[in-house]
Amino acid sequence: MAAGIETRHARACRSRSGGRCSCEPTFRARVWSQSDGKRIMRTFANRTEAETWYHDAKVAVRQGRLNGGTETTVREAGAALVAGMRDGTIRNRKGQPYKPSAIRGYERCLRLRIDPELGDRRLSDVRRRDVQDLVDVLLADGLSGSTIANTLNPLQVIYRRALKREEVTTNPTTGIDVPKDEERRERIASPAEAVSLLAALLEEDRALWATALYAGLRRGELRALHAGEADLPAGVIRVRRGWDDEDGEIEGKSRAARRTVPIAAELRKHLAAHKLRTGRSGDELLFGTTTTLPFTPSTVRRRALKAWKAGKLSPIGLHEARHTFASLMIAAGCNAKALSTYMGHASVSITFDRYGHLMPGNESEAAGLLDAYLTRAVGQNAGQ
After folding, report:
1. What's this model's pTM, rounded to 2 decimal places?
2. What is the pLDDT of residues 39-49, one digit of tens each?
3. Of the options 3.90.980, 1.10.287, 3.40.30, 1.10.150, the CATH number for the domain spanning 74-164
């Protein structure tokens, strides 16, 4: 099998009829993989790049680092990925099953955005420029940077798996330029504002919003919370699961999601009143529409917006209420590790990344903390 570099001219180029080249030719380099009986080809814009790849590829083929690639297409690999995620044979990097919502998100990204552009391409034929072109198309369609990054997630998983299985030799999803969204701060309520927001709500909704504001539970965790897990005598909420609209009760977002959160006095009074009013106990859903049916977030939010509008208060969302809990704990002096545990973050680095700007850390604060400590320490030594 011939191997080497071929100059490829445009169809309208004069060189095809014996004249001088009138186009910008490309250069196709090819080598033969004896191990799998396939020809490996790449096309480049200039001869120098083609020659460099050609010489490197010959060495890589001899060393077994380059092969003819797989016949599997991106669409086929995507379908296999989703199927494996659903039956549990494909897990995330931590070895945990993918959540139903994550699986649906991956399937949607593949079907709506990746497959129309790359679905028919062989995995081994996709280049970094192809993925970058996809990003540029999505950006031109008005998608945000975070949405584009999420779109690439299933493609990145596909290629990580393909590399480990030696189906491809390069990962075209690395080094892609994805625009970052403008940083925005989530709304955070002050302590006094949180009290006012709760007071304006209907009685039936106060405990739910108070648990978001003063315990920081995620929306799915609030929907799945059993009455018995809000343990008033012990003074803690035991978070054990979340809720998925299609699958019902599901395991938490990570192992760290299973946690124990302290009940502050301000929260205790709302929970006690709610339990007394509803009579909920044991495995019954604490905030459910019924004892077995979780609340509908849109309905709860609609009632809250109406109440806050009547009270001329700035509204807040359940996720923003979670941010408020974090800010209140930081202001109260809770250390980052403890806060990370209460928030259910997989690592303390997530807590620092998300809430570091709220933590004491500027020069004057640091100096003040050190001065106060030294004053206490020196005073204690002097008194001995």
Report:
1. 0.64
2. 777 888 888 98
3. 1.10.150
